[in-house]
Amino acid sequence: MGWHGHLKLNYRRSTAHKTVVHDEHNGPLRILQSLYPEGQGICHNVLVHPPGGVVGGDVLQISATLGESSHALITTPGATRFYRSAGEPALQALTAQVAGEARLEWLPLETILYRNTLAENRMRFELAPGAEMIGWDVLALGLPASDERFDAGRYTQQIELPGVWLERGTIDGGDTRLLQSPLAWAGHSVLATMWFATGQALVPARRDQLLEAAREAAEAHPLKATAGCTAPHAEVVVLRVLAHRVEPAMGLLTEVWKRWRALAWGLTATPPRVWRT
Q1: Which of 14, 82, 161, 242 has the most crowded CB, counting CB atoms within 10 A?
Q2: Domain limits for position 205
């Protein structure tokens, strides 16, 4: 039997116009102290998993509810590491419900897959009309700098905006056609996905501004040849990046985050301090 962790986060806007969170946890999954580097309206939280990695048999479940007009930024203190399994799969699942006029920023640091990982990661974001979010996911195969390759194991990932965007795929460490094909990973070891989503159709001019901002950032970045931004649905804009290392991919995502924040919400970006430690 592995670790079982459950975390519930309930954000609301107080009468003092402060976003506050009530959290309940069971098992090795919790948040650190709420921080307000941008003022009382935006609550920054860091998710912590004390065991330091996820192994076969572990089940981690997170649910986040954002009440009307609340604003939460959720990140992690370091990479999420899926270690080898002796046979049992691991599961990490997130469900977020975002009410009208609320904003969610889901910005975890990278996920690293070790050799012989058997795991599934599910993310579901339910946005009410008027709700908006910025999210990203950075997936790294193995540790190339240490010659630790993800050449065996299976990892399934699902990102869902119900009725809007569903992405589900499985990466098999032995699937060289997927990992080496120029139509897929093309030999890269990092895949980054970022999205801006709303609970109703984006005004075309606003959608085009978000697309142009991401494309301009990518064009000025060393990864411009392996980055692209599209709007697969009227309620979401998606940026995709392939890289050989995490750092340049994260650098591009951070730049796009800054631009999208300014364009969509009129906010300057305040990177969480934990990203620099």
Answers
A1: 82
A2: 4-276
